[in-house]
Amino acid sequence: MANGNEKDFSAFVQEAGLIWGPSPEIYGGLAGFYTYGPLGKLLKNRVENSIRKTFNENGYREVEGPTVLPNEVWKASGHLDTFQDRTIKCKKCGAVFRADKLIEEGRDISADAFSNKEILDFIKKNKIKCPTCKGDFEEKIEKQSLMLGTVVGGKEASLRPETATGTYLPYIRYYNYFRKRIPFGVFQIGKAYRNEISPRQNVLRGREFTQAEGQMFVDPKEKNNWEPYEKIKNEELPFWSEAEQKAGKFSEKKISVEEALKKKLIKSQAYGWCIWLAYTQFRNFGIPQERIRMRQHHSEEKAFYADDAWDIELNLNNYGWTEVCGVHDRTDYDLTQHSKASGVKLEAVRDNGEKFIPHVLEIAFGSDRPTYSLIDLFYDKKEEGEGKTILKVPYHMSPIDVSVFPLMKKPELRDVAEKIALELEKSFVVDYDFTGSIGKRYLRSAMQGTPYAITVDYDSLKDKSVTVRDRDTEKQIRVKINSLTEILWGLLKDGKKFGDLK
Ligand SMILES: [Zn+2]
What we know:
By secondary structure, this protein is an alpha+beta fold. It has three domains: 37-62 and 168-194 and 202-376, Bira Bifunctional Protein, Domain 2 (BirA Bifunctional Protein, domain 2, 2-Layer Sandwich), CATH 3.30.930; 84-145, Herpes Virus-1 (2-Layer Sandwich), CATH 3.30.40; 387-500, Anticodon-binding domain (Rossmann fold). The chain has 18 helices and 27 strands. An eight-stranded mixed β-sheet has the order 3-10-11-20-17-16-15-13, with helices on both faces. Strands 24-23-25-26-27 form a five-stranded mixed β-sheet, with helices on both faces. It has a three-stranded antiparallel β-sheet with strand order 4-9-8. Zinc ion binds next to loops.
């Protein structure tokens, strides 16, 4: 961890009801499995709803497939034979670690592309020791499969390590549903499982996690005749090319998608559009742009199926630059493999009668990492005074929209406050709280990241108005009870501020 607030931060994540674990805690916990508490689950829902909105707005439709698939699928996809991590063992305590992550942690490099020898040399040269006991490592690299297997009805099966493969299998169903027209896009949000060697870093690297993956099926001949590209080609993104990485520099300067295509950093308009869409998604989460960069995969680290491949990385306070998304041109690899293995032709037909296998452009990410990133980036602890802590997430992403408080525990105030809370529940996520001092309730509301707090006081009984208080400015305005919904709608959904309300 980069800052000294590590303990405060971890305690906050647990105590605020965001993320608990490893679960099950009362049994000591199984590494890599977590429980989202009430506040964390609300935040994760925001993230997933933002994903749904972004994909739907851009022509994708959501589907949901099973999380368990027979091993013949994973044989065909290549996972059974090649989905492995490289491991290294501590000579002293016997603990096993993922070799590339040992190198990457706390360093701004990617070890994916390192050969086994390069990994061993790097560990030696940098005197990397066992994180558990500070012992030395064995001088050999081994491999461990990431697949979690099971048996279903006597048949060998595995829990899916990604949603992508399962998304490709109903290809013919989609093709018919979308009236035999290419391109079309589908996405899945759902659980996936990887038997990670040494899961750490909370939900950033769990063994069970929620993926969100969009798949655009395209005609390879139309990749550079991509209509939506025209609208976004001038958008500037923080591309960080392989050449710049190798020269050891990261320029803050952004370039347009069109320029990236001209410079051959990316190969097609359709891919350029996908990478723009992925970037847009992270901006829609409210991640500040200076915290985002797009990192080109090195030619050696690209997956065997991938043509164009870039990652999105976020600069987190606790872990530095962290991979949160991959955008891949998977070509016809998947449909070809599953066509061969199943014996079913997975193809499309052009207007002129030509048959072809569509290519797949994939945006692969999930909801755990963005959720964690929002907590990491917007955790704001004031050192002075009482040590006030605010979860300063952008208002549109806050887990709870509005808190409703009666000033005191008196029945007449509670009556009015409860009615207001009930009414607002129709449109917003509301936290109703009548216990403790009003000051403490404001603090708790800000700690939960809630943008607005409504207080019902004795004047409310007479003037039918309440006080609305802003989380960040702590400014208050007086609002008629019967216009609360409309005003909160303007503030929360249309991004208005108090000053705009007159
Ligand atoms: Zn050790």
